[in-house]
Amino acid sequence: MNLSVKHLRAFLALARLRNFTRAAEACHLSQSAFSALIQGLEEDAGARFFDRNTRRVELTAEGRLFELSAARLLADFESAYTELKDHVDLRKGRVAVAALPSLAAGTLPKVLAAFHGRYPGIAIELFDGLSDTCIALVQSGRVDFALAPASSPVAGLQTELLCSDTFHVVCHAAHPLAKARSVRPPDLLPYPFIHLARSTSIRQHLEHALHPLRLNSMMEVEHLATAAALVAQGLGISVISSLALFQFKLPGIVVKPFKLPGLVRHIHIVLPEGRTPSVAAGGLLKLVRASFAR
Predict the structure, then answer these.
(1) 3-state helix, strand, coil in the chain (%, to 5)
(2) Which are the contacts of 173, defined by CB distance < 8 A and separation ≥ 6?
(3) pLDDT at 42
């Protein structure tokens, strides 16, 4: 049976109005086109739905049986179509993103606030985690995309360069390095150093670029805020990426350029390969790209 929405609307209009002329007008069809729809519906069903005479149209027993089903089918279609339009027009939906802690707590909240302001009906999920966690969330389908370093290709994923992140030395204002215009790797060696955990991309990039130099490690901590508090107390110095510097805007902390060629962290948008993002995810991606372009 080639049942269409036009058939359902024509059938229900005639069942309600009991007049071919008025029902055709309600469906914005000529009477001949309308009659052809009803005739085709009855032929496909192999049953007569209406008894016609010169004065009135009446539902047959089969017509009354079909009326409830037709009304339910049309209502389901219209509900599904409305739901789809709401998603396409960004009135409803969901978008999930994973990002490094330095992005999730730094640049990204402003972007998410702007997106929520424009599209308040879209539910937003944010996962903050280290690079491997972010990429795994994309692979598992739990997030639409991630913002993270992607140093090597990953099967099933595609990457797009978002920005390049440089590095800086942070120290207490009373520290000897606070007077330097810039700092080079050998300048770090005499002083206690506050390391981030080995699982962080900041630590991994720094150790790779410094090799074979070994720093005078004093402490290793998981969180940027902890490292900042330790530096602010003069317990050691550290090297931090630009995107994480917002955590180090504390009284007594000085930021100095770090001169080490090749020390740069490339942040990528990581997406499932060959899959078109949802309309909601596409809208957020557009804002993310625009924010970093500025």
Answers:
(1) 45, 25, 30
(2) 252, 253, 254
(3) 87
Residues 207 and 248 in one domain: yes
Distance CA 99, CA 208 (A): 22
| Residue pLDDT, tens place only, 215-224 | 999 999 999 9
Quick check: 138 and 123 in contact, CB under 8 A?
no
Same domain, residue pair 120 and 255: no
| Tokens matching residue 175 | 């520290």
Cα–Cα distance for residue pair 3/67, rounded to 1 Å: 14
Place of tokens 């049309």: 74
Asked which of 66, 88, 110 is the last residue of a domain, the reply is: 88
Range of lowest pLDDT (120-124, 248-252, 268-272)? 120-124
**C-beta neighbour count of 12 within 10 angstroms:** 19
Number of domains in the chain: 3
Under the banding of pLDDT at 50, 70 and 90, the label for residue 293 is confident
Residues 205 and 262: beta-carbon distance below 8 Å: no
pLDDT band at 91 (very low <50, low <70, confident <90, very high): low
Q: Are residue 107 and residue 133 in the same domain, yes or no?
A: yes
What does R_g of the chain's alpha carbons equal in angstroms? 32
